[in-house]
Amino acid sequence: MTLDQQSIDKAAMWAVRTAEPDFDDWSAFTDWLEASPGNAEAYDRAVSAAEAGAAVLGSIPANDEDRLDEEDGPSLRRWFAPAFAACLVAVAALWLWPGANADLTYDIAPGETRTIALGEGSTITLSGGTKLVVDGDDPRQARLEGGRALFDIRHDEADPFRLAVGDATLVDAGTVFDVNIRAASVDVGVAEGAVIYNPDGPAARIDPGQVLSFDRSAGTYRMKSVPIEQVGEWREGRLTFRDAPLADVAGDLSRATGIDYRVARTGGGDRSISGSVTTEPLRQDPGAIGPLLGIAVRRDGEIWILDGS
């Protein structure tokens, strides 16, 4: 993703302002952070530069500071440190930013969600336990390395959005679609528009209300129908399972809640589970998932064991 000089300068400015003791413009700062996926990265680098600048300032000997007072008067010393720090932030931000357009990596902790803006009206909402890499040269290309994400993409016929998932490629056609990477398979559900699976190979078209599941190792796929409102419903705090292996249920629950759910070693990990649950109550009572899905649940330290046998 290209970052122009104005963006870098803005990040340096925010790094200086947010460090001020009386700073209170958090609303404007948050709006700026959310305006572009590159702003948070730029800000982090500027803050690192500021910390490096503080270390340099801290290394100035006392006699050098005193000499400033003697030669130039007290007024110079009063503005010297903050002015130097501000300049150092801007300069260091320039030098620390990689020359090439670096890929942007988003790594979301289990139990959290984050929405990023790709610009021009496109957004991606990331579930917990998700890792997404957006191409530094072209934000219309990304790679989902794990987890789950809901893509709301502004379609451009001349420049379609392309998502890599392992060896597979997904291409949008005016689309809201959900991608869920599991241990052995990947589910791609469409709520609006369409997604083309592997357009350069044995392609398949996924339309609204359809979920394509492809095997991560064999490359085979199958199609099923679901209610459109269930596509991406996890963003609203709900998970629906339809004949899902218990192992997949445990993985989805763990990512959504941040609670460590696992399947008992002899507890029917392949057992098919159907049901719909809201995730927020589970944060308070992780064991409540048992009666909701008709399975046994027990606690082992910080781990919750699901037993479907």
List the topology elements.
Blueprint lengths: L4 H14 L7 H10 L1 H22 L3 H11 L1 H23 L7 E5 L5 E6 L2 E5 L3 E5 L6 E6 L1 E6 L8 E4 L2 E5 L2 E7 L3 E8 L2 E3 L6 E3 L3 E6 L5 E5 L12 E8 H12 L2 E4 L8 E7 L1 H5 L4 H5 L2 E5 L2 E5 L2
Parallel strand pairs: 5-7, 16-19
Antiparallel strand pairs: 1-4, 2-3, 3-6, 4-5, 6-9, 7-8, 8-11, 9-10, 10-13, 11-12, 13-14, 15-17, 18-19
Give an account of the 3D structure.
This protein has eight helices and 19 strands. The chain has helices at 5-18, 26-35, 37-58, 62-72, 74-96, 246-257, 280-284, 289-293, and strands at 104-108, 114-119, 122-126, 130-134, 141-146, 148-153, 162-165, 168-172, 175-181, 185-192, 195-197, 204-206, 210-215, 221-225, 238-245, 260-263, 272-278, 296-300, 303-307. The chain has 309 residues and is an alpha+beta fold.
